[in-house]
Write a structure and sequence with these properties.
It contains ten helices and six strands, in the order E-E-H-E-H-H-E-H-E-H-H-H-H-H-E-H. The chain has about 190 residues and is an alpha/beta fold.
Length: about 190
């Protein structure tokens, strides 16, 4: 696990009170675990962006909702998402950025397993939306297709995140599932 050290002063919040999780292959599970462990608000960017029937919220409205959620988070927040058009808002506030910088093979496998399970169970995601077989595996809206066509973007996530971060923020880059397990153990996090 590559970590640029910047010790946080409050031992109750070793990663700070404003944490961003980016990348593919476990960011929402990690974000929820961090939020629960440290008593922070969980802000899921996909839940803001994807309205009912998969209608995308316009960018300016997404930004307004996000700013409102940040201001309402009394203790702090954990935000997960890969949206470039709101990233400046996140980076302006962040204490720690955690990037899941897995290899393409690991990203694809973890995303495939998750998507298969959610499609099979017809799990409700956000705002009544569900993944379905056709969209998930056989269309250009597929998250797997999205990873494939944006693979270079995901490979450079750590570098791009570092460029947009405040100098006092900490960057943690997770390169493997083993490193992710170590992070869970180090901070007493529980997967749900």
């Amino acid at each position: 696990m590559a970590e640029l050290k910047n010790e946080k002063s409050d031992p109750k919040f070793p990663l700070g009170r404003r944490i961003s999780v980016e990348g593919k292959g476990g960011k929402t599970t990690l974000s929820k675990a961090l939020a629960k462990r440290f008593g922070l608000d969980f802000i899921e960017q996909d839940a803001i962006r994807h309205q009912a029937n998969w209608v995308e919220l316009p960018i300016e409205q997404h930004r307004d909702v996000l700013q409102q959620k940040f201001s309402e988070a009394e203790v702090g927040w954990v935000s997960d998402g890969n949206y470039r058009d709101i990233n400046d808002l996140v980076m302006a506030e962040v204490d720690t950025v955690i990037v899941l910088g897995f290899s393409l093979r690991v990203m694809m496998w973890r995303t495939f397993k998750r998507t298969l399970g959610r499609s099979f169970r017809r799990k409700v995601l956000w705002n009544g939306n569900r993944e379905n077989w056709w969209i998930s595996f056989f269309s250009r809206e597929s998250v797997l297709y999205d990873i494939w066509i944006r693979r270079e973007r995901f490979r450079s996530y750590a570098t791009r995140s570092r460029d947009g971060m405040p100098d006092e923020a900490t960057l943690i880059v997770i390169h493997s599932p083993h490193e992710l397990d170590d992070l869970y153990e180090k901070h007493g996090l529980v997967r749900e």
